[in-house]
UniProtKB/TrEMBL annotation, chains A, B:
Record-linked InterPro entries: Homeodomain-like_sf (IPR009057), HTH-type_TetR-like_transc_reg (IPR050109), HTH_TetR (IPR001647), Repressor_TetR_C (IPR004111), Tet_transcr_reg_TetR-rel_C_sf (IPR036271)
Name of the protein this chain belongs to: TetR family transcriptional regulator
Gene Ontology biological process: negative regulation of DNA-templated transcription
Start and end residues of each HTH tetR-type domain: 33-93
Length: 264, 264
DNA sequence: GACAATACTTTACGGCGTAAGGAGATGTCG
DNA sequence: CGACATCTCCTTACGCCGTAAAGTATTGTC
């Protein structure tokens, strides 16, 4: 189930995101005991530690010694809390990437930071991207990669598509790692063990496998990939896909530069 | 919330997927009134029409005139039902792509079919890929793209990474379209309207936007993109990202071919 | 001291996956 | 035929979820 950003009142949501100071002078009633930041921090902690399915209003409240319902005085609903979490953690991506060696190493560094960022906060990959949160930190990340790519002199239109492609790719590759860890945690079975069990059964259930899927079998035999020491197979493989795929895309960008501007 | 494949008994799951004939001779008790295929078809219909959140055991049962619990005599749990749905629909991707004009048009055709396939069944993008379902149709899709890419003569290891990259990219790009439709349906607000409201509010909440994000503003002004007639903005843009991104990746593959085999 | 506004609580509703147990159908045996 | 095992399918129940509604306690202004 994908979560969608920005369902509620637009102004209220944006003022929360940009922390527009709320003038709350002499008004009756008890003082708020919590701040938005405390709530967002608690929610992020839960999502980081236990994953998105464990993130419930009741759980966040409990972590703060409050009932789940009490949060509704700070945040209109859960979906907007997720928006706030989303933008908040994007503040971690504030590196500026020097262009002294050109755009390519800078893009690589940016993508690498994004890659490990998603691994630190895998729940981000379950928040839809279509309706952007429009918070300060999300904009800053786009600004950063766009500034780097300006160096390629690609036309704006193509450049924006390259930005999209990079995000799709990094998110997809990061998802493999994130989900492999989630699956292992959720099922109590490591991916290696899972694969060992399955791959032993497949030949029994499908005796003519090699005849039906000759290319898969041939590639499996010819593959020289071996995981790094101490790193689970799937994660090591995903890291290699990230490296190779990113290089492939950047090679493609160079080809587009060499071709010069034209129809995208 | 991402769904994970294959939590249950491996043999039972695989026999269901590959439809290994169950010898159910003279056994007492009433005859089953349903078949697995009927259940899978009903579940796919719900997911296609109303999206993954609407897919509940009770809903599938209701569509078949049965209680939700009755399905548990056919399928061990919901997660395995999703596996069956996943593999079943992949049977639609059975085209074979001629190589007379080389690998590049064939990959483009394959990716294009995958792209529209995901749009026909957007819920597929919410099923995790880490633990593959290992059904006949899923294998067939991998076999197809692998066979095409064999034409590039890339080493097996690199070729497999390219396959991963293509899947990441196509899934990511397709997700944009799928989620944009889901968001519009779920919120009752078109993406255009949503954007109109937000973008009007941002300058009020963030008066110094242009100073803080100069590259974004400059790119927005220089962008020549205009949506196709009658196609929503976001979808048209996503289609262009798909075209441009795929071309970029394939250019990168050609560059890797030109470089010849080496460390991936 | 009266009153209004606010923070926070408890309770409740309709959804979910599925465990448990029971009803009725259908086969094999004596 | 009757007894019994086995099967499909049903109802009920549990503990989760987001959040609506209503109640209580606290704090300010008049």
């Amino acid at each position: 189930m994908v979560l969608f950003a920005g369902q509620g009142d637009a102004r209220r949501a944006l003022e929360l995101l940009w922390r527009t100071p709320v003038t709350r002078e002499k008004r009756p009633g008890p003082k708020p005991a919590l701040t938005i930041d405390e709530i967002v921090d608690a929610a992020v902690a839960i999502a980081d530690e236990e994953g998105m399915p464990a993130l419930s209003m009741r759980a966040v409240g409990q972590r703060l010694g409050r009932s789940g319902m009490s949060l509704y005085t700070y945040v209109p609903n859960k979906s907007e809390l997720v928006d706030l979490m989303y933008d908040h953690v994007h503040g971690e991506l504030n590196g500026d990437y020097g262009l002294d060696q050109g755009w390519r190493p800078a893009v690589r560094a940016w993508a690498g930071d994004l890659w490990s960022f998603y691994q630190r906060h895998p729940w981000l990959l379950q928040v839809s991207q279509v309706r952007p949160v429009l918070g300060p930190n999300e904009y800053a990340v786009v600004e950063t990669v766009a500034r780097i790519l300006t160096e390629t002199s690609l036309p704006a239109r193509t450049l924006l598509r390259v930005v999209g492609t990079l995000f799709h790719f990094v998110r997809g590759a990061a998802q493999t790692v994130a989900e492999s860890r989630q699956a292992a945690a959720a099922t109590g079975l490591s991916n290696e063990d899972w694969w060992a069990v399955r791959s032993a059964v497949v030949p029994e259930v499908v005796p003519d496998f090699a005849r039906r899927y000759p290319t898969i079998v041939a590639l499996g035999q010819a593959d020289t990939f071996r995981p790094e020491e101490g790193v689970p197979y799937l994660e090591s493989q995903a890291a290699e896909t990230f490296r190779v795929g990113l290089a492939t895309i950047l090679d493609g960008v160079e080809a587009a530069m060499a071709r010069g501007p034209g129809e995208p």
